[in-house]
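Support case: user asked for a sample of complex input and structure output to validate their parser. Sending the pair below.
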Amino acid sequence: MKSFRGWKLAQRCIAAATLTILCLAASAQGFALLGQPAPDFALRSFSGINVRLSEDRGDVVVLTFWGSQCGVCRKQLDLLDHSFSTYRSAGLHMYGVSVDDDAAHARQFVAAHPLTFVMLEDPAKDVARLYQIDNLPTTVLIDRGGIVRHVYRDFGPRDEALYLSQLRELLNE
Amino acid sequence: MPVTEKTGRIRHCLAASLLGGLVLGLCAVSLGTRAADAPAVSSAPGDATAAAAADASSPASSAPAGATAPGAADTRSLDEDTQALKKDVVDLNRDLFVLEEELLFPANTQVAIYVSMDVGEFFALDSITLKIDNKEVTNYLYTPREVDALLKGGVQRLYLGNLKVGNHELVAFFSGKGPDNRDYKRGASLKFEKSIGAKYLELKIEDRQRKMQPDFEIKDWE
């Protein structure tokens, strides 16, 4: 009887371990663009200047997709802005891509929250579709060779340390 | 689109195989140089440390030029081989690009539209939208760098596509900042006949000094 219970427990442990491994693998492979060249795009910024991603090849680029109605995005934008002001001299480019349906809301938000990095508008969501964004905020780290290296979904204060270490790593490459 | 994906895959496969060949070639070259060096080291099998010490001391002490010459020559030949392989890769990539264009846009249906800009005092280009036969084919946003390149005399290929033989209409909308930094949007159109053979059209943006206005023209390169 004891051996039967032990066998059942072992089976459960194996099942749990398999499930954990599968979940980890799924989360790692969740973003199809990881390790792939970052899709090029051109977007208009809120200041009126057009930006093309391929012009920043050779520098590290941080792309963050946000919406004015997203509370988490606001905190994350402040956090990213701080890292941008620290590392911009090391060759860092940072763009915030607004996916608001109504550009007026995004403009109001940008006016109320002045940030040092460039804010781009994507009302048609072409770029968001290109980057397969299904969650806000999503932040994408692109290396000097134009390859998507890291992606953060639901970026929170806990991710800050990881983000900074990975950013430093890319800047040192 | 499937044709593009197919050719893209072919290109990727060829590029991957070529890179593999490049790596194998480099390995072979490096192994060859090591093999060439090997007898010199193995000639003194009894005392490896003494040989290493002799190797380390020889460039500094007796004849540095004579001692480093074979190594330098090997490195030079390796560099030359690498450069030759790199050149082959670039040439092959160019040939593949030409082949891809010939496959996707055959000469008898090809239409290419170019953009050029002269002076640009009265117009700061922001975007161009192209319509062929009332169907939007491209909408291109210009960055300050791209505008600078056009102002320096660059010619950009804005669109490359296919059209049937017959009559067609091209409409181009130019938007940007006009005189006195005001928002400015103008259109230009051209009815043209597509015959057998490639068709080349040029969108020219020029300044009209007399009118103090920009001028937009579509030129048909027969």
